[in-house]
Each structure stands twice: as C-alpha cells, then as structure tokens.
C-alpha cells in the first residue's frame, strides 16, 4: 500500500477506489472511524458467512458500534461494543449467539486488536411475523 500526503490529510488508492484519511472530517475519514469500521465490517462479514454456511435464514443483520476512547492516552480506542440486531422468522437465539462467538474467534480484525482494544458483542433478535 502506498500513502500520499495531501492537503489536510493522506490519500491512498485501492482496486475499489480512493480513500481519503484525515483527523479532520472535512478532508476525509478519521483514523478511528476506519479502525471501528474494519472491526465491525469484518465481524458482520464473518458472522454472515457462518449463518449462510449453516443455512440459517434471516431477513436482515445490522450492527451498531459504540466506541469508548481515552482522552488521556492520545484518545486511543479502549473499547468497541458491537450490538448485532438480527431480523427474521423463527430465529433460534441460542444458535445465533453461539455463532456470534465463533465469528469473533474467526474475525481477523477482532483477533488483531485482542489485548489492546476490548471488544464486546451483544445480540438482539427481532422476530418477524408473516
């Protein structure tokens, strides 16, 4: 990966497109936002693969990330709480929760920050009716 200085931040390019990074939201994504997005995106992606592989039906999955930062230590990320909301018909909450634990162990981003950032994952099931 190559990164280039630009006014107000840094720029890099990937096959998918260009990414602007800056501590000022007016010039790009803030580094902490990218870190949280990486953890959340990896987590939901691995979770989805596990559910799909087990042929568990769901209509939608949403993850809300709540971040705790420490202003006294360079505003570092101390904790990320990922709240998974799974919507579907005849959901088995115990099975969904067990799969969430498996996904955490198989998410490269969660494993990369283990010991540095506390990751908490919670699950909410919303039963849809026909």
UniProtKB/TrEMBL annotation:
Pfam families: OsmC. It comes from the Bacteria. PANTHER family: PROTEIN YHFA (PTHR34352). This is OsmC-like protein.
């Amino acid at each position: 990966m190559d990164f280039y200085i630009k006014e107000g931040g840094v720029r890099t390019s990937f096959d998918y497109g260009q990414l602007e990074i800056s501590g000022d939201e007016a010039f790009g994504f803030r580094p902490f936002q990218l870190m949280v997005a990486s953890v959340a995106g990896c987590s939901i992606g691995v979770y989805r693969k596990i559910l799909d592989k087990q042929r568990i039906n769901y209509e939608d999955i949403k993850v809300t990330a709540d971040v705790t930062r420490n202003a006294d230590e360079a505003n570092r990320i101390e904790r990320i709480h990922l709240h998974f909301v799974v919507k579907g018909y005849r959901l088995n909450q115990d099975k969904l929760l067990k799969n969430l634990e498996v996904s955490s162990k198989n998410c490269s981003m969660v494993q990369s920050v283990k010991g540095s950032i506390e990751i908490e994952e919670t699950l909410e099931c919303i039963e849809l009716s026909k």
